[in-house]
Amino acid sequence: MNNLGYYNGKIGPIEEMSVPMNDRVCWFGDGVYDAGLCRNYRIFALDEHIDRLFNSAAMLDIRVPLPKDELRELLNSLVRKLDTGDLFVYYQVTRGTAMRSHDYEPTPGNLWVMIKPAAQGDFAGSIKLITVEDTRYFHCNIKTLNLLPNVMAAQKAKLAGCQEAVFYRPGGRVTECAHSNVHILKGGALWTAPADELILPGITRAHLIRSCAALGIPVHQEPFTLEELFAAEEILVTSSSKLVCFASELDGKPVGGRQPQLRERIRQAMLEEYLEATEV
């Protein structure tokens, strides 16, 4: 198969799959999700992603229909059905199926899976960013399906010829990107926003922190501002689909480029971890 869709046990090409109109995701975006890269049919950091999915579901009182070990086994079996082992693996759990009503009865959720080919290189090269005021709510730590502000910010970045949008709150605190975490190198140290309710605790963010610690690079999990972002020695962007990238432009102005050797040490360390973990 070139791509794969899964819904509560039904499997087929994505374009041939259908779901009930009364799945609560259709009315309310009522669900949570997670996703990550797969190489050589080995899903990277799968246990960490599944843990985050269950944590997001618990915070919204959503019941994942499978225990963790069965979900892990299912995902590992589904990727084997694809023609290539280099994939993007996405999965979500919605609250269930019922007539439209804001309140709900606790029932097992619906499990969706989408798997598609994903070309993978060495994740080198720079990206361009823009800044966007963060108008989202105070549950950004939950990987919910309610992503409309993220969608609009990502589209604004695309129209500006950029690859990602950086959110900031009133007062100038930088939080995260539309679909990534953002960090800076300052004084030879990594600065990353704290894992509070204003950011998603990215799996790749956690790997970045561990990689920096192993390299002897100091790590500060503290808020930083737009002013500090523009003045940073380097701007790093991490995500489950791109691992780690660096930015060369922010709102049309050149940024970073003052710690290329340190930046490259970090990128290489994370790439090597990924390649080793997904080797056959």
Q: Please, could you describe this protein's structure?
A:
The protein has 280 residues and is α+β, with helices and mostly antiparallel strands. It folds into 2 domains: 114 residues, D-amino Acid Aminotransferase, Chain A, domain 1; 152 residues, D-amino Acid Aminotransferase, subunit A, domain 2 (D-amino Acid Aminotransferase, Chain A, domain 2, Alpha-Beta Barrel). Strands 7, 8, 9, 10, 11, 12, 13, 14 and 15 form a 9-stranded mixed β-sheet that branches. A hairpin with a 2-residue loop joins strand 14 and strand 15. The protein is globular. It starts with a strand and ends with a helix.
Question: Topology, pairings included?
Answer:
Layout: E1 4-7, E2 10-12, H1 24-28, E3 31-39, E4 42-43, H2 46-59, H3 68-79, E5 87-94, E6 110-117, E7 126-133, H4 148-159, E8 164-168, E9 174-177, E10 181-186, E11 189-192, H5 203-214, E12 219-221, H6 226-231, E13 234-239, E14 243-250, E15 253-254, H7 260-277
Parallel strand pairs: 7-8, 7-14, 11-12
Antiparallel strand pairs: 1-2, 1-6, 3-4, 3-5, 5-6, 8-9, 10-11, 10-13, 13-14, 14-15
Summarize the structure.
The chain is α+β, with helices and mostly antiparallel strands. It has helices at residues 24-28, 46-59, 68-79, 148-159, 203-214, 226-231, 260-277; strands at 4-7, 10-12, 31-39, 42-43, 87-94, 110-117, 126-133, 164-168, 174-177, 181-186, 189-192, 219-221, 234-239, 243-250, 253-254. Strand 8 (164-168) and strand 9 (174-177) form a beta hairpin.
